[in-house]
Amino acid sequence: MRVFILPPSFQGEGELSLKGKDYHYLVNVLRLKEGSFFTGRARNGSFYELKITHISQNSLTATSQEKGDEYSSSTDSLSAYRGFFPEIHLYQGLAKGKKMESIIRQCTEVGITSITPLISTYCVADISNKEENKLTRYESIVKEALQQSSSPVMTSINPSIHVKDLMNSLEFPQRLLVLHQIPKGETKSIFLLVKQLIQEEEKAPLYVAIGPEGGFSDQEVEMLVSRGAKCVFLNTNILRTETAAIVSVSIIQQYIIDLLSHN
């Protein structure tokens, strides 16, 4: 059974009530009954073993017992790699329509630490007047993806920022990888850059910035690189922004696992 993501309001209480989408997921999708056990995970990463004690028409009651950071009744397994893994933060140029939701869902399944919508010159999408509703929707997608994938990483969604403010928001701006749609003079292999950064400091976070449908402008790339970012070009076919996101973060994640597994 998949790991259930507990509500943000849950603070380790011995008993909790669930309704709405949570009730529907447990009772109608997973078909759990009174007396059924399931594994829940709080927003701080701790696991709980829960037992359903009562089911009514629109809500259920369950008792909870903390199990720390280990699985209990779940039969799904986490990633085979159990060593330390650096955080990967995605700064994704705002994509139009359902593309942004697809990026968020897939990158959550992969195990990205955080996703931040990035506003840039060529962004077609505009959420300035509806950002609160959009973020609520994005958080719902993250929860669904976490429950589906049983990812050990509790992905978070951040408010959008403008690309001109990106470098000031980073703790380690020199560890930002900027994907560009055409090769630049000093563009290096993504493998060489990731290896270099991991060898310099394997525990520091990595940041990945991906442009919207039109990519980043030359001025934006030059601004980021002049302030320490690393320009990356994927030597493949021309990729859509939603494809570039999942491909790049998956490549980076798997390559880091390979590097750290052989240390």
Describe the protein's architecture and organization.
Helix content is 33%, strand content 22%. The protein is α/β, with parallel strands linked by helices. Strands 6, 7, 8, 9, 10, 11 and 12 form a seven-stranded parallel β-sheet that branches. Strand 7 (114-119), helix 3 (131-149) and strand 8 (156-157) form a beta-alpha-beta unit. It starts with a strand and ends with a helix. 33% of the residues are buried.
Features:
263 residues; single chain; five-stranded mixed β-sheet; 2 domains; 7 helices; seven-stranded parallel β-sheet; Ribosomal Protein L25, Chain P; alpha/beta; globular; Alpha/beta knot
Q: Any idea what the CATH superfamily of the largest domain is called?
A: SPOUT methyltransferase, trefoil knot domain
Globally, the shape reads globular
State the order of secondary-structure elements, H for helix, E for strand: EEHEEEEHEHEEHEHEHEH
Q: How many individual helices?
A: 7
Give me the CATH fold name of the largest domain.
Alpha/beta knot
Query: What is the name of the CATH class of the largest domain?
Result: Alpha Beta
The number of distinct structural domains comes to 2
Q: What is the CA–CA distance across the termini?
A: 34 Å
